[in-house]
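Worked example 2:
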Amino acid sequence: LQAPSHIRKWRALPRFNRIATSKRFRDGWLLESGGDDRLIKRFLLQFPPGAWDVPWELLVGELDRERRSNISIVRGLSDGPSILPSRFDRPMSVLLMQGDDGSRTGRVRLDLTREAELLLKVYDSLPAAHRQSIVKPRSCQPTAADLENVFKDAPDVIFFSGHGSSSPPGFILTDGSRLTPARIGQLIAAAP
């Protein structure tokens, strides 16, 4: 599997390669994400402790270019609900949480504004019937002190846009603090 150049030296990458290149796993992944149908497929990955930092999203890069846009990988916590709703009684809410763009941590600079614009452009290009099922995505750039207010509306989908860390695993907020998977779980569990 090919990883983007800026994460080739990442410590989690060898773990990913050991797991994802095993014949059984790879064959199963290609079978589940491939096939003749062109339906959008979503994969919920729930992680036990210690596996959060493995870059599972690289699996999409294994697929044919035209197939990639039909695959979505969603990360979940290992103690999350075992049954997820397949229907909503209200429009789905989407939160784009922007963190460090690299200016705080000295990492490669990311264009988070452009990423937000692309998300909104995709939303605006949806057919009207689909837009009725999804609330226009909202974005925020929270600090650690803002987090409880950010999650009080209990968004259905959270996009993390920005840099993360692998030791300890976490999403780097605009103030430089880390939002760990355990803290994300606490915030979601506390939301109404």
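The radius of gyration is 17 Å. The first helix runs from residue 12 to 20.
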